[in-house]
From TrEMBL:
The keyword Ribosomal protein does not apply. It comes from Diversispora epigaea. This is Eukaryotic translation initiation factor 3 subunit D. One of its GO terms (cellular component) is eukaryotic 48S preinitiation complex. Residues 93-156 are annotated as: Disordered. Residues 113-148 have a biased composition (Low complexity). One of its GO terms (biological process) is formation of cytoplasmic translation initiation complex. It is found in: Cytoplasm. Belongs to the eIF-3 subunit D family. Pfam families: eIF-3_zeta (PF05091). Component of the eukaryotic translation initiation factor 3 (eIF-3) complex. Keywords: Cytoplasm, Initiation factor, Protein biosynthesis, RNA-binding. The RNA gate region regulates mRNA cap recognition to prevent promiscuous mRNA-binding before assembly of eif3d into the full eukaryotic translation initiation factor 3 (eIF-3) complex.
Length: 550
């Protein structure tokens, strides 16, 4: 018998099969392994030197020895042929990330060893399904340190097809701005204040005090509809006008998560920062900055949804400010409340004072960038060296065990003994809200900032509440505790003013993206939101009461 050697074709020019051995149709295709099951043996493994293996411990040596069988040859080359998504999937969220093996049901006979812990596994599975029904995945469950919820929120206002984007600014750019501005000066003061009841400073959490409802009303008048601001504009007292609620939102905007919008009207050489009726400024958010904030629910009876919590917090703030004052002692300002027209109406008004204050945002002496802001005070304390003016706000606890609580401590047990931890948690979960309150107090020139701690009587009932305690802080010290830079806020305001002053007369809307840390400036038609003409030299101030909105 004759043995004939097979033909051997050597590839002298490179690595891999010789071109002569490949069919014509495969010659221009780059080589890659056809199966990930192909293994790379130890003879070609240069990643584990022999000396390193000798020095390894027994467990590590075993890992080195059997690592080869888990490494697929060519696994790194597969990325060259992988499909890349071209669309933006930032808003995509996987509800169920379990593997097919986890989803597949199995049966084990009762009493078998494999069934140990079956009841515990079943309970854990039920909890997982509950959180999936809430719109989250397993990674977003409370207690997981890797929480990173992805939620899609709607914009605060629908962007019309005729709206034109003029500017887009990321929050990280806003955070780098800075402008030092001196304390404001009073231009005009209106209204009256009741004195603060100091007995509320001595309420311990163990002797809680019921929060009483209030029938008094509070007005939320936008900038351009304020009769005092209209007159100040005619008198050329400033070039920019705003209210403390609108301005504080803009100054603290890098901390915001939920969507918002500001209407900016350019009339002549003046700017008016306005709000829409029933906008976000009239309501208070809850745990907006928490790592796992409250989730929107289709269930209208869900008292822990963001909207329900916002309405609850807004009502709590209103009632708390009414309850902690002494109505037998009253402090009158030089002028009456500009939003009431009769003494009967005053009896139904919430006691508050309005300070119209001027701030100079000019960078040099040649320019004139002055702003008048309508600020608000809530109470006054009589002291030996004069009166001390206060702003009054309230934090609220809904259910420390509920989803969206943000790891809140139980106030009834921790407020008296660990108040610092309670405050730190609130600063983390409500960074934007507390920063706005501090800025509003600073703008108003308040000497103190009173914070109340209000909780539900029962976590399942959002209609009855109790006061567990109060806290006093100086606004600038409180801002420093939150690492809040007021000069950064003024830098943001000056930047927006500069952008808008370069635009022609008209109406513009500044909108915070609902799902990204970005703000956009839009040019919109003059009749957008059906707002009346802002400033008309022929206006009769006696008819301004028609512009008042509740």
């Amino acid at each position: 018998m004759n043995f004939q050697l097979p033909e051997i074709i050597d590839n002298e020019n490179g690595w891999g099969p010789s071109p002569a051995m490949l069919p014509e149709k495969f010659r221009d295709i780059p080589y890659a392994p056809y199966s990930k099951a192909d293994k790379l043996g130890r003879i070609a493994d240069w990643t584990t030197p022999e000396q390193k293996e000798k020095e390894a411990t027994g467990r590590q040596r075993q890992n080195y020895r059997y690592r080869d069988q888990y490494t697929a040859y060519g696994h790194g080359a597969s990325s060259a042929f992988s499909y890349t998504h071209a669309e933006d999937e930032a808003t995509f969220s996987v509800v169920d990330n379990r593997s097919p093996a986890q989803k597949k049901a199995s049966y084990r006979a009762p009493g078998s060893n494999k069934n140990r812990g079956g009841a515990r596994n079943q309970q854990r599975q039920q909890r997982n399904n509950q959180y999936q029904r809430l719109g989250t995945n397993n990674r977003n469950m409370p207690g997981n340190k890797n929480n990173n919820p992805q939620r899609t929120r709607d914009a605060s206002v629908n962007v019309g097809p005729e709206w034109k984007v003029l500017e887009e600014i990321e929050f990280n750019r806003l955070s780098k701005l800075n402008l030092e501005v001196d304390d404001g000066e009073d231009v005009s003061s209106h209204g009256f204040l009741y004195h603060y009841d100091k007995s509320y400073d001595r309420i311990p959490a163990k002797t809680e005090k019921p929060l009483l409802p209030s029938e008094r009303v509070r007005y939320f008048i936008s900038t351009s509809k304020d009769p005092i601001i209209k007159q100040l504009s005619r008198d050329d007292e400033a070039v920019v006008f705003a209210t403390d609620t609108i301005l504080s939102l803009l100054m603290c905007s890098p901390r915001s998560v939920y969507p918002w919008d500001i209407v900016i009207n350019r009339i002549g050489n003046k700017l008016f920062f306005d709000k829409r009726s029933n906008g976000v400024y009239d309501y208070i958010t809850v745990n907006e900055n928490a790592a796992d904030p409250p989730i929107e629910s289709a269930d209208k009876d869900n008292i822990n949804s963001p909207n329900a919590l916002s309405l609850e917090a807004t009502d709590i703030n209103h009632c708390f400010a009414m309850q902690v004052v002494n109505e037998t002692k009253r402090h009158e300002f030089e002028k009456s409340n500009p939003f009431v027209n009769s003494t009967e109406e005053i009896e139904y008004m919430a006691p508050c004072a309005y300070r119209y204050r001027r701030f100079d945002l000019s960078i040099n002496e040649e320019e004139n960038v002055t702003m008048i802001v309508r600020t608000q005070l809530d109470s006054v304390v009589e002291q030996t060296n004069g009166n001390s003016f206060l702003t009054i706000k309230a934090l609220n606890e809904f259910d420390s065990r509920a989803q969206g609580a943000g790891g809140s401590l139980d106030w009834r047990h921790k407020l008296d003994t660990q108040r610092g931890a309670v405050v730190a948690t609130e600063m983390k979960n409500n960074s934007f809200k507390l920063a706005r309150w501090a800025v509003q107090s600073i703008l108003a020139g308040a000497d103190q900032m009173k914070l109340g701690y209000v909780s539900r009587v029962n976590p399942k009932d959002n209609n009855r509440h109790v006061i567990l305690g109060t806290q006093s802080s100086k606004p600038r010290e409180f801002a420093a505790q939150m690492n809040l830079s007021v000069s950064n806020g003024w830098g943001i305001v000056r930047t927006i003013i500069d952008i808008c002053m370069k635009l022609p007369e008209g109406r513009y809307v500044l909108i915070k993206d609902p799902n990204k840390p970005v703000i956009r400036l839009y040019a919109v038609p003059q009749n957008t939101f059906e707002v009346e003409e802002i400033i008309d030299d022929g206006d009769d101030l006696e008819n301004d009461e028609e512009d008042v909105e509740k």
